[in-house]
Each structure stands twice: as structure tokens, then as C-alpha cells.
Amino acid sequence: MTSFKTLPEGPVTLRNVTVPGCILQSPQDLIRTDLHVADGRLTDVPGKAVEMGGAMVFPCFIDMHTHLDKGHIWPRSPNPDGTFMGALTTVGRDRVARWSAGDVRRRMEFSLRCAWAHGTRAIRTHLDSLPPQDEISWPVFAEMRDLWADRIALQASCLVAVDTIDFDGRFRRTLDLVVEHGGVLGMVTYPCADLETRLLKFLKLAEDRGLDVDFHVDETMDPTVDSLRSIAQAVIATGFPHRVTVGHCCSLSTQDDATAARTMDLVAQAGLHVVSLPMCNLYLQDRGPGTPRRRGITLVHELKARGVNVSFASDNTRDPFYAYGDLDMIEVMRQATRIGHLDHDATDWTNAFLANPAQACGLQPPSLALGAPADLVICKGRDWTELFARPQSDRIVLRAGRAIDTALPDYSDLDDLMEPA
């Protein structure tokens, strides 16, 4: 058969490929089929046949929660103890000392090259927006969005802490930057004395400017931390008309069943989109002396059972919040399946890496329907166990029907940025 890495030019038929049934709106787990590609799109006209031997095919992925501005600073600013506070403190120091426009631009570009090679077509990044960093990072993001527009669709959300926002002061400038660059209004939430009041002000600003919102929520194992409930109640009370995403929601997994159920019912009623970040949460949560006992992942099965739109994403990449990762959604899918036990539940979890994040981000859903762009990730693994047993580093990535170069950038490309401060 033709080499797995080589496909002929021109119209082609990918014969005998395996597709998750949910992508084809089927209740089946996996389906064997043929896909025809011509003029950059999926078609019903056969081309030159290539026997694929059951290789699994996905539309290119959507990574809806990342931190491109933090990425790849680990060599110069490692987390001293692997804890959340260690990450927060270390990133803060590095940001103040090192995050010039040139530094942020170089690291963003490196991350996007990785995501492109792995087969990602859209990314939402959170941008640390504590002044004066907002005036630096947002213009760099806009530059990257323009440069990558024909390869990866980029969205950005500001990242500010709930109890530091001066709603009538400097935050108005951050808000203007978000609006100017077509962004999403983001905030980190945790209990504070006037949380409910701050949430209402935040949602009012977003509604007035026509903005979606994206929260970092309850990134802790403390069961008393429940700002997720407050967010859901605020959205219900205000009838907030735009998309609301909540990420992490770790403490939900440590609450008693009745408390968690009441909060999840409110999340469903409010129509919140939940994104779980299992790799980063596994790394940070329940870290302390001895062996960790809890995974940090939120209650994805129970939320999904209530009709909540649940997604998974990469989160941090080689920074103090997560020392590893490469913006590879196949890796995210593999790890989420293992960490969250997605493998013996339903047959539609693949949507949590494709259609669900598209819905949360207001993007065109990935599709294998006739006429859809031939933006495909083709893996040699023929079923789930083969797919997840190996990293699929020999995958084929098609964009507009053409195989791209999947060689990853070398870490040495950033060596000149990695000298310790």
C-alpha cells in the first residue's frame, strides 16, 4: 500500500477509513467508510483510490482553552514545588520581568507552529491582562491572529482576578482592548466578600458590549469553594444573552453529592458551557507530601447527563502551571479518556474535542459532510486502543485537502529567550 505518510496530489479517495460514529451523526461507536477529496473539500466524486487500512480520521480539532502568552517559559521559570501558588507566583515574576512584545510574540508563534503540525484549526487563548500587560499582549495577539488567519482561527479572552477588578477605573481600558480586538471577557473567580455583586457588574459590562464571557472557576480541591454556583445563579437572574464558558470547576468533584447536584442543575439551567482541563488539573491539584489521591477533573459525566455542553482542552503548555504538553489535541483526548474514564460510557465523547468546543466558541462545527473543507487528521491507529496506545506521531494532517508538513519546531528555537532572569 502507499506509504502512510504519502498521499497523491489531486482528487483522492481515502478508502477504508475509520470514523467515530458521532461525527457522522450515527449512534455507532466506529464506522468504516470511504472519504473522497477534491479541490480542498469532501465530495461524492471518487478520485485516485488509496487503501488506508482502517486508519482513523477526525476533522481538525478546536482547542478552546489555552494560554499562548505563558507557553514555554518553564526552562527559565520552573515551578519550584509544583503547586498552584508556586505557579501563580512564578508566572507573575516572569511576566513582570520578561513579557515584552517580542518575547510574547516568539513564544506564541512557537506554540501555534506546534498546534498547526498536530492538526488544530482553532484556538482560544487566555491573555494575562493585568495592566500594563494588557497593552502589550493584546496587540501581539491581534498580529498573530492576522498572520495565522488562513491556518488557525484565533480567539482571545482577557484574564483578570475577580477581586482585583476596578470596574469604574483602569479595567475600562482592558475592556476597550477586548472590544477593539473582538475578544471575550474573561475572569478568574473564587470566593470573595462581594462576589455576587462583582459577577453582576461583570455580566452587565459584557452584555452592554455584546461580549461572550469565559471564567476560570474554582481551581481548587477545597469543597467549600463554589463560585460556579454563583456564576450560574447570576446568569439565570440576569438572563445574560451571550455565551458563558466556565473552565476547571475542580472543587465540584470534592463536594458531597447533594451539593454538587444542586450546582450542576443550576449550570444546566443557565446553559453554561463547561471546559475541563484534565492534564493541568491532574498536575496541580491535590499536590502535597506523599501520593495524590484525587484527579482534579470536574464531574464531566454528571454534567453531560444533564445536557450541559462539555468540552476538553489543552490549557497550559510548558509553563509553571503545567510543565508538559504540546497543544496536541490527540494527546488531550488520550489523557482525558484515561483520567475521566470516557472509554466505557458513551459513544459520542469525540464531540467534546470537536463539535462541543465549536458550539462554546461560536465557530463552524467540524464536519465530514459533503462540501466540508478537507481539513483532516488521519491516524494510523484503527480503533480506540490502537489510537491511544501510541502517540500517533506519524499522523497525516490535511488542510484544504493537502498534506501539511507535520515536523514540529525544535525547542532550541527559543533558547535565546530561556536564560534565567
From TrEMBL:
Keyword terms of this UniProt record: Hydrolase, Metal-binding
InterPro entries: Amidohydro_3, Metal-dep_hydrolase_composite, Metal_Hydrolase, Metallo-hydrolase_Enzymes
Ranges where the Amidohydrolase domain occurs: 197-395
Lineage top rank: taxon: Bacteria
One of the GO biological process terms: cytosine catabolic process
GO molecular function annotations of the record: cytosine deaminase activity; isoguanine deaminase activity; metal ion binding
Top enzyme class: hydrolase
EC number(s) stated in the UniProt entry for this protein: 3.5.4.1
Protein's UniProt name: Cytosine deaminase
